[in-house]
Design a protein that fits this description.
Helix content: 25-40%
Low-confidence stretches: 1-26, 28-48
Largest sheet: 8 strands, mixed
Radius of gyration: 22 Å
Distance between the termini: 33 Å
Length: about 475
């Protein structure tokens, strides 16, 4: 890769927690003993992994969608996220929303009104209790199920969709236990349907530009990356209407580690070609004391509020280090409990330079010297074709939500291989249980399963895609 004529992207174009149980079930199968350290070290050396469960079906790597002129969508969960994402589904050509599910009927009716106002037929509503989604997943006129519900339900809903013969996209995280991640991998393979983590940050303009620059060799040999979810959510987590229940705050009473690694790990994994020539081998995590939510509660919540019954254990700041089979390092951080401006870090460094986001800045040799950051805007020519065609996309998060859905629906309509698959989804989510297990084991490294079962060694395409012809 030090060859100035080498283009990683051109290669890809041609390639086509032991003892860490919780009440919700066994979360991890990582190593926690001295002998396990030797195993983890060996895995880091050769990219091997703990024995995977026997394969129950053929791999979904490289499997295209069936292709269809119209994608028929069912949406489960119409709260803050689902209630806004439906607008983007309705803005896409060749997409029809045919079914909606939420136990709160008023939310489903509000979303249904958007569908009819967009000129589509009235969708069928599923509002009869928490499990009515199961009926939605058995419909014969659905191609894709979108899940935007509290985390507790992601696994069960993805499972129901796959068993119902539907492709499924799930908001972060995919599931909360390693055994659940493995089961979704197996179900995807057995039923020949894609199960995808809808990681919108991977489609951010900066992330996609840096990815293309990395594949063109501008950073040289890649060495390390960093990603994070640092977002002060204290006010929202104590708002009973924003996170009903409030379900998100309660996860801070259950897990110690990184509850939301995907926004950082997804883009970093793309930079490093994880599951496409490299593999995430192991993770070690340390966490700060859990003080922020209790301090906020003391200052803002009245005596007798339901929150006073809660004991928070999730580290205010968790810091994880992931090592890859090639010896690279990815740093992940999570903090939603303290005052801090929004930050996803988004760092990539190699032998020729470094990019750092928030604010975006770059330092590449030989263009730059003298310890002075350069102007990232000068590299706009490396923008992904999706951002060149959609310079001002609608929707939240700077338009990355629209870019993600546009590309996914395009792949389904044209019968293309998706940009990411169930193996990426499982890998990007694995730090949830494994970071908890590592913190409980005083930072002991935890082995990350090889969900591809050895196929990670093959270089292949991903989010750095070619523009479809025609």
């Amino acid at each position: 890769m030090n060859d100035p004529g080498f283009s990683r992207r051109s290669v890809l174009r041609t390639a086509g927690a032991a003892g860490a149980g919780l009440g919700i079930g066994a979360l991890g199968t990582g190593t926690g003993a001295a002998a396990g350290q030797d195993t983890a070290a060996a895995a880091a050396a050769d990219g091997s992994a703990p024995a995977a469960p026997p394969r129950q079906g053929e791999t979904m790597i490289g499997v295209p969608f069936e292709g269809r002129s119209t994608v028929r969508v069912g949406i489960i969960g119409l709260g803050q996220r689902g209630g806004s994402m439906i607008d983007l589904f309705l803005a896409l050509k060749g997409v029809r929303v045919v079914a909606l599910c939420d136990p709160v009927r008023e939310k489903a009716e509000k979303a249904a009104k958007k569908v009819t106002e967009a000129g589509q037929p009235a969708p069928t509503l599923y509002t009869k209790g928490d499990h009515d989604f199961e009926k939605l997943c058995t419909r014969g006129d659905l191609d894709f199920v979108y899940v935007a519900t509290p985390w507790d339900w992601h696994y069960a809903m993805a499972k129901a969709a796959l068993k119902g013969g539907k492709h499924v996209g799930v908001e972060c995280p995919l599931a909360l236990e390693l055994k659940q991640l493995w089961e979704l991998v197996d179900l995807s393979e057995r039923h020949r349907k894609h199960c995808m983590q809808l990681e919108n940050c991977a489609y951010g303009q900066n992330e996609m530009r840096v990815l293309r620059m990395a594949h063109e060799g501008l950073f040289g040999d890649l060495l390390h990356s960093a990603g994070a979810y640092i977002h002060d959510l204290r006010e929202l987590m104590f708002d009973p209407e924003y996170y009903e229940g409030p379900w998100r705050r309660k996860w801070h009473t259950r897990l110690k580690g990184d509850l939301y690694p995907n926004h950082g790990f997804g883009p970093a994994s793309n930079y490093m070609d994880v599951n496409r020539g490299d593999r995430a081998v192991r993770i070690t995590t340390f966490g700060s004391p859990a003080l922020g939510l209790a301090a906020y509660r003391k200052e803002h919540m009245p005596p007798g509020d339901e929150s006073w019954k809660e004991t928070y254990i999730s580290s205010d700041m968790s810091i994880s280090l992931v090592q890859t089979a090639k010896g690279r390092v990815i740093r992940l951080e999570h903090n939603v409990s303290n005052p801090h401006p929004y930050d996803r870090l988004n760092i990539l460094a190699g032998t020729k330079g470094v990019f750092e986001d928030y604010p975006p800045r770059i330092y590449l040799e030989p263009e730059m010297s003298g310890h002075e950051w350069g102007d990232f805007d000068k590299y706009k020519d490396f923008d992904h074709w999706l951002w060149k065609e959609h310079a001002n996309p609608p929707g939240g998060h700077g338009g990355m939500d629209y870019i993600m859905l546009f590309r996914l629906m395009q792949c389904m309509q044209l019968g293309l291989v998706p940009d990411f698959d169930v193996y990426d989804a499982a890998t990007w989510t694995a730090p949830v249980p494994l970071s908890h297990a590592s913190i409980k084991a005083n930072g002991m490294p935890q082995e990350i399963p090889d969900f591809t079962r050895g196929l990670w060694k093959k270089e292949r395409g991903g989010i750095d895609s070619e523009k479809p012809k025609g």
